[in-house]
Each structure stands twice: as structure tokens, then as C-alpha cells.
Amino acid sequence: MQKPNAKAKTQINKKHSLPTAFNVFDEARSLGEHTDLIIRANDREFQVHKIILCGCSPYFRVLFSANWTRIPEHFYDIPGMSRNIMSLIIQYAYTGSVFITEENVLELLVAADQFLVSGLVDACCQFLESRLCPENCIGICMFTEDFHSCSKLRHKAKLYILQHFEEVLQVSEEFLELSLEQLEEIIDKDELNVKQEEVVFEAVLHWIDHAPESRRKHIAMLLPKVRMGLMTSDYFINNVKSNALVMENEACMPLIINAMKALFEFDMDLHGPISLELIHQLTRPRLPSAILLAIGGWSNGSPSNVIEAYDANTDRWVNVTLEDERPRAYHGTAVLDEFVYCVGGYDSVEYFNSVRKLNLITQTWHEVSNVVSQQVTLILVRTFTRDLVMNIMWIIFVCVWQVYICGGFTGTECLFSAESFNPDTNQWTLIAPMRSRRSGVGVIAYGDLVYAVGGFDGASRLRSAETYNPLTNIWCDIASMYNPRSNFGIEVVDDQLFAVGGFNGFSTTSDAECYDKKTNEWFDANEMTVFRSALNCCVISGLPNMAQYAAQRDAVQTQDESDSE
Fold first, then answer.
1. Which SMART domains does the UniProt record give (predicted)?
2. Residue 550 placed within a domain
3. Which pLDDT score, from 0 to 100, does residue 458 have?
4. DSSP one-letter string for 332-373
């Protein structure tokens, strides 16, 4: 197994605050006073107090109560145990503190599990979890299979493999050592995070090629786990159907025929009912790695508490509204860990200075400390004063944070001016003005550029969009949206920029569309179920319950189940 992390240093576990009596016992142990047991490990003897070992380990408690009379001269020999590891176990028993390093963590975990020292097992698991990476996640997952006490770490490692599958393929030598059953389990999961299903097929070929003579027959077992109906037709014909391993295995022929049927159905009706896309296992979309949340907004003349989640892999919106939340519009949102923070806003009666957070795992709202009124004004100023739109952008080349303010409304005219803030100098600087006046504009960092999209120029809602390059201080026009809009939600998901909802000059809209910077093209996305403007969007990822925010994959039967009825 690969080491947890080449850069890992040491971790000290100090979870337990032990009373002074234990410190006295530890000092007595070091002096050899009042000890009643000698433990021998790899020819080294440790004088200890039985009661201390019993206090930290059920293993020793049972051993001493049942077998103590048969242990001669109060000696207990532990064969095969490293003297250094035994020393750490004893140190932990007396002090509750131990150094865990990348060099000792695996051996220490084995010993802690053997002696049922649960606190030390947990500390080792936390150490390994904090150092999960593409190089070692498979090894950690396989290593913990024999330890019931490491089930949480094993689950985290499996989740890491699924979420970082493409990175794991590139760097993990242990991927090639997976068993057939282990590989089947991984590629069969809805949670497997791949941008294209072609990656899964290439992974299967890579695994087989490591031991072709013994593994080539397994293509018939692995191919059904590859969702061939999600591939492009060209790739399927040129790389799967014509693959030598597939062609020589007769058991693959029915799979290829079914895949061709699935591809044909998929191509013929891209926007058909959900059954056409999800009913067949070969076209069952995997869960997205990230979900776009559209929160609140202004709908039908009043604020809304609606929360919709966009699943890019199925192009569907899922209503995840919690009815006990207060409606609000013109608010801000931010994501931190498993929480979405909703800041400020307006409910047609009052302006909020409150901050609410949504626990995405328990799906419950909680009140947190209020912000001061000036900060609320900054959020609300988007609509009611200068219409400031702020986005924090990481400038890769100079490695500093910058805050950008673009456009707005003075009360008499829409602005095309823009400014940037440098936190190191605590200064605002005028940058090149935008090419169009924009109020209610959507601004976001996308790649290395600042994007200003849509808005209102004082005469009409805009379809146009432009980008700002911080290195050249130049704005450039890009392709226009399909739909004009202002006061809409904007976010980046799966390396595509989404514009959601807003006001089109005549009515509030539910339209959504996305922009691909590689092709400079906009594409229609499925519309929300609720018309709204003044909403706010954010992106969530890496949650253990991502399926709750995605289109239901089990809402319909698979084709095989339907055929059997």
C-alpha cells in the first residue's frame, strides 16, 4: 500500500484530558514503581500497571481477569509485536497522547485494533482519512477491509475513489491490483464521477491489459457495468463494438446489440420522457459530482422560499424546498463544508440582516449570528442603489485575491464602469469599463477571466456577455445568450457557466442556459419549475447524500426488469 501522503508529517492525538492520577501512574511506570506486570515485545520488557491497561483496553481486561493465574511470574509475552509499537500503545494507555506518523500509522492501527484500543483506532483512522489522495485511496480501502472498527474510514476511502476516479486512474498503481469483484463494484456505482462514460471503458481495458491472459475473459463481466448508452455513437462503433476483446467473446454480443438499441433510442429522442433515458441500465446517468442550487427569489409578485437543484447529468431540476424556511429575494448565498449560508435579503415587508444556514446533510435550517446593517445594504445594493455585483476571483498568475464590482445603477443611469479591490493594499482601483452599460448584471469568475453577463442598459434587457482579462485590462465580447435577462442566478458547474431565471423585460422567467468557454457557445438547459428573478445560485459537491439533490435514478424500472415482467 502507498504511504498515506508523502508530505504528511506527524499528528498528535490529544482528545483525552487525563486526570492528575494518570500522570502520577505514568511517572511511576517510568521509575518502575508499583508495577505489577511485565510485557515483553521483541525482546524488550515494559513494566506496567495492569489497571491502567485494563482501563484503555477490553482486551487486557478480559486477558487479566481470565488468564492471569496462568501467566507465570506476572510476565506476558506478545510475539510478533514491534517494540516501538508496543511502546506507543502503552504511552497512549497512560497519557492518551501519541505521535502518529506516516511511517507508523498502519502498524499502529493493526496493533490498536488487536488490543481493542478504540480511541487509538479512531485516531489512526482520522490520520489516514485526512491524508487520502489519488495515490493511496485504493490501498487504504483494501487495507481496512479486514478491520470492522475501520468501517467509517473504509466508506470514506470508497467515496474518495468514486469522486476522484479519473485522477486515481492516472496515478494509482494499486488500481491494477483490484480484484474483479472490487472493480465491478466501483464501476457499477451511480456515484462514479466521470465526465464521459468512455473513461470507464478505457479503465476496464487498462485493468485487463495488466494481466491479459488471466483477465481477458472478464470483459463479459465488466462490460455490462459500462453505461455504453451514454457514449457517443462514434466512440462506441470505433472503440467498443470493434474492440478485439469484445469481438472474440461471444457473451459480449447481446450486450453490444442492446447498447446499439439504447444508443438509437437515446439519439432519436433526446428530450423524451424520463423513462427513455433512465429505464435502461445502459443509459442510466451517473450521479453528478456537483449540483447547482437555485435559492429563493421573486416569483408571482412576492418572495419565494423555493429551492431547486439542477442535475446536469440528466438536465433536470429537483424541488428540494423546505417549507419551514422564510421566503426571501435579493439575498446572497455561500457554501462552506456541508452548509449553505443565506445572507440578508428582502421579503416585501422588511430587509433582513439575518443569516440562516442550511445543513445539506440533515436538510434543516438554523439561525446564525446576524450581520451588521451596512453589510446587508451591500447585498441589497445590487437592486436598490448602485447594483453592485461582487465576485471573488483567484488570479492564478499573480496568486492574489481580487474583488470585482461591475456596472450598476446610480438612480439616473446604468453604469459600464468596473473596479477591483486588492486586499493586500486595501485599495480600490478603476479598471477598464465594460463595453455595455449593465445593471442587474451577472458577474462571476470562470477560468482565468471575469464574466459579465446580461443585465439592463437603461433601455432593454440584454442577451450580450463579455469577459475581462485581469492581465491585459481588456474587455472582450463573447457569444450572446439565447434569452435576455437581468437579476438572474449565475454559477459555474462542471466547467460550464449557467444563467438561471431572471427578468426578461416582460416577465419573470424560468429559463436556464449554459455557456461553454471552449466553444464560445450557449446551450439550452431545462427550465426551472418556478418562474423567478432576484434568486441566488450556489454549487454543492462532495456530499455523502448527493443522491437526495439529484434526479431519482430508481424512479423507474430498468429495461431488464421490464422485459422480465
1. BACK, BTB, Kelch
2. no
3. 94
4. EEEEETTEEEEE--B-SS-B---EEEEETTTTEEEEEPPPPH
Residues 137, 201 within the same domain: no
The set of cell numbers assigned to 252 is: 459480449
Note the pLDDT tens digit of each residue in 344-370.
888 888 888 888 999 999 999 998 876
Contact 131, 257 (CB under 8 A): no
Query: How would residue 36 be classed by pLDDT, with cut points 50, 70 and 90?
Result: confident
Q: Which three cell numbers stand for residue 328?
A: 426571501
pTM: 0.79
Measured between alpha carbons, how far is residue 513 from residues 25, 261, 466, 523, 527 in Å? Answer: 68, 30, 16, 6, 8
Strands 99-101 and 521-525: unpaired
For residues 84-101, average pLDDT: 89
Strand intervals (E) in 30-119: 37-41, 44-48, 75-77, 99-101
Averaged pLDDT score across all residues of the chain: 84
Q: Which residues, at least 6 apart from 100, have a Cβ–Cβ distance to it below 8 Å? A: 10, 11, 12, 13, 108, 123, 124, 127
Q: Is 559 a residue whose pLDDT tops 80?
A: no
Bridging pattern class, strands 489-493 and 496-500:
antiparallel
Q: Is 482 helix (H, G, I), strand (E, B) or coil?
A: coil
CATH number at residue 91: 3.30.710.10
Domains held by the chain: number: 3
Helix and strand totals (H; E) in the chain: 19, 27
CATH assignment at residue 308: 2.120.10.80
Lowest mean pLDDT among 65-69, 95-99, 191-195, 394-398: 394-398
Confidence class of residue 307 from pLDDT cuts 50, 70 and 90? Answer: very high
Q: Residue 502: CB partners within 8 Å, gap ≥ 6? A: 440, 454, 485, 486, 487, 488, 489, 508, 509, 511, 533
Name the pLDDT band for 236 (thresholds 50, 70, 90).
Answer: very high
- 41: three-class secondary structure by DSSP: strand
The strand pairing partners of 541, in sequence order, are 290
Q: Are residues 335 and 389 in the same domain?
A: yes
Contact 389, 407 (CB under 8 A): yes
Q: Residues 262, 228: contact at Cβ < 8 Å?
A: yes
- The full length of the chain comes to 565
* Per-residue cell: 305: 422560499
Closest by alpha carbon to 322, among 354, 363, 278?
A: 363
**Residue 236 lies in domain:** 181-266+276-283
Phi-psi region of 337 (alpha: psi -120 to 50; beta: other; left: phi over 0): left
CA dihedral 65, 67, 73, 78 (to 10 degrees): -110
Element at 12 (helix H, strand E): strand 10-12
Report pLDDT digits (tens) over 26-35.
665 666 666 6
Cβ–Cβ under 8 Å, residues 513 and 483 = yes
